[in-house]
Amino acid sequence: MREDLQEAWRLIEEGRHEEAEARLRQDPTPEARFVLGYALAFGGRLEEALALYQALYRETGSHKALHQAGFVLRLLGRLGEAMAVFEEEARLPLGPLERSVNLYEQGYVALLMGRKEEARRFLEEGLCLAAGEPAFVAPLHRALWEWHRCFGSPEAAEAHREAARRLFLEAGDPRGAEEKDNP
Q1: CA–CA distances in Å: residue 67 to residues 20, 53, 115, 160, 170
Q2: 156-171 residue pLDDT tens
Q3: Which of 20, 18, 25 has its CA nearest to residue 6?
């Protein structure tokens, strides 16, 4: 990844969204605009982030831009629209890890919609595809922790909670390890 984009990511991770945005607005490339969408979304400007990702998808056809549009729709609470976007993404040619991320989102949206069995099926399928990749497996365990807290057993919930924490740390994401304690 380009050094300037790495710097923008660092600023975003530090919560310095406006600084990241100022840097990224100077670069019209799709890569910079993609990162800009994160700065906008995490800075609370979800509608702007959504418009940006939708435009990027129209311009580039990138499944990543489509995925991020679905992610922002989920954050906005527009769950039906988010699910439709993730279903559209699922019809694109995706590698196993990309597919696992898509299944995570479909499963998490289904969970938020109260679609119990559909959610579990998506999340468990994603877990199988992401096996061996801590950064991809950890969010699936976190979502399964939430699923079991709502619908399953306390023992299974705790097992997924601990797996998520361990895998986030293994992936070098201490913030992810903390976030799963506050679903």
Answers
A1: 21, 9, 21, 25, 25
A2: 999 999 999 999 999 9
A3: 20
Scanning the structure block, which residue is given the tokens 């945005």?
A: 21
Is pLDDT at 143 greater than 50 in this prediction? yes
Contact 147, 180 (CB under 8 A): no
Confidence of residue 31 (pLDDT cuts 50, 70, 90): very high
Contacts of residues 82-89 at CB distance under 8 Å and 24 or more positions apart, as own/partner, are 82/109, 83/109, 83/110, 83/113, 89/63
Residue with tokens 């609370």, as numbered in its chain? 44
Tokens 């992936």 belong to: 171
Tokens of 95: 């590698």
Give the Cα separation of 83 and 73 in Å (integer).
9
